[in-house]
Every structure is written in C-alpha cells, then in structure tokens.
Amino acid sequence: MKRPTWDEYFMKITHLVSERSTCMRRKVGAIIVKDKRIISTGYNGAPRGLAHCLEIGCMREQLGIPSGERHEMCRGAHAEQNAIIQAASSGIGMEGATMYCTTAPCSTCAKMIINSGIERLVLGGRYPDQLGEDLIREAGVKTEYKIMETSGAETE
C-alpha cells in the first residue's frame, strides 16, 4: 500500500469538499493549506442564506452563458472565493499558503488569490478563462496540475 504524498492527500480532500457544491454545471472545491494544515475550505454555491441553484435553477443555463464567461451572471460564489473569505473572516492569514482546487481559477479568483498572498496553486484541471492563467503566471504564483483519475490515482 502506497502512502499518498501531501499533494495527493490534499487533492483528495479538495475533491471531497467539491461534493458540497450546489452548482448544477460544475462542482468545484478548494482548500487552503499552510504548514501542512488545512486553514480553510470552500465550494461553489450561493451566498449564505440565499436559495441555491439546485432549488431554483441555474440562471446561466437559462441565459445560455458559456462556461468561463460573464462570471457576474451567477448566483454562486466560486470555491476559491469562499475559501479565501472563510479564512479572512476567521482572521487567518494566507501569506505563503498553498491553494488546492479541482479546477484552475477564473480571472476574478486569480486576482483574489494573488492579493491574498497565496504562493502556490495545485490544480486538478483547466478552466476556460485564459486571463486567469495569465494573471497567475505574471504574479509568479507557482502552479502545478495534479489531475486525479476516477480511481483516485494521480496523473500529470
């Protein structure tokens, strides 16, 4: 039996977090780790106290908005945003932390990641927003892709 690396371990947890998502189109999970400790988690869904898309339907589907475009036309907050907000609302600094996410960040999340001081991203897949990738690269945030197969094994 092979013991998972830290990245494999945290990516598995990130996939578990994504199962709480209330998005009808894409289930995304994110966790922020500092010193090998999870300091916050987030998944995509409607803000606290608001109806979830699972309950009332997806506005983006109804309007025919493609993935990766018009982020403002959505009831939900992204997993990365929720993880950053959760850490910040608890007074936890993210300087030097690593974020694990099941998908690459959009341009809005990329800006939040950069400004929060997160220094490393471990991502489970791509997202159709080139500006997000460009901003992360320009800011010097280290990025690695760790794609998990359905069996739970890691590929690159």
Topology:
Layout: H1 6-18, E1 29-34, E2 37-43, H2 53-56, H3 59-63, H4 79-89, E3 98-101, H5 107-116, E4 120-123, H6 130-139, E5 142-145, E6 147-148, E7 154-155
Parallel strand pairs: 3-4, 4-5
Antiparallel strand pairs: 1-2, 1-3, 6-7
Give structural notes.
The chain is an alpha/beta fold. 34% of the residues lie in helices and 19% in strands. It contains 6 helices and 7 strands, in the order H-E-E-H-H-H-E-H-E-H-E-E-E. A 5-stranded mixed β-sheet has the order 2-1-3-4-5. A two-stranded antiparallel ribbon has the order 6-7. It starts with 5 loop residues before the first helix and ends with a strand.
Brief summary:
34% of the residues lie in helices and 19% in strands.
Task: For the structure shown, list the relevant keywords.
156 residues, alpha/beta, two-stranded antiparallel ribbon, 7 strands, 34% helix, globular
Q: Beta-strand level of the residues, as a percent range? A: 15-25%
Low-confidence segments, given as residue ranges, are none
Number of helices: 6
Estimated structural class: alpha/beta
Assembly category: single chain
Fraction of residues in helix: 25-40%
Shape: globular
How confident overall, as mean pLDDT? 92
Radius of gyration: 15 Å
* Main sheet attributes: strand count, strand direction, barrel closure: 5 strands, mixed
First CA to last CA: what distance?
21 Å
SSE pattern: HEEHHHEHEHEEE
Number of strands: 7
Q: Can you list the strand order of the major beta sheet?
A: 2-1-3-4-5
